[in-house]
Design goal:
Length: 74
């Protein structure tokens, strides 16, 4: 599980105005889980409060990836 304060800490230190989230699925299936979708929405809302836009969330595997933005999940 991820907490927004951990995700945005470095972005705040660097004075970033946007971030791209990336994490892996060791299972090899890049399909976003319900938890992935829920936490992405939570992080997007936190980013709005901080003035840091979440540009995309990418899930990677050894051979594939999925972009939330491309899949219209963001």
């Amino acid at each position: 599980l991820v907490h927004p304060r951990e995700v945005f800490a470095e972005a705040i230190r660097q004075r970033a105005n946007s971030i791209i989230l990336v994490h892996n699925h060791p299972s090899g299936d890049p399909t976003p889980s319900e938890d992935d979708i829920t936490i992405t929405k939570r992080l997007q809302e936190a980013g709005k409060l901080l003035g840091i836009e979440v540009l995309d969330h990418i899930i990677i595997t050894k051979t594939h990836f999925i972009s939330f933005k491309t899949k219209h999940l963001l």
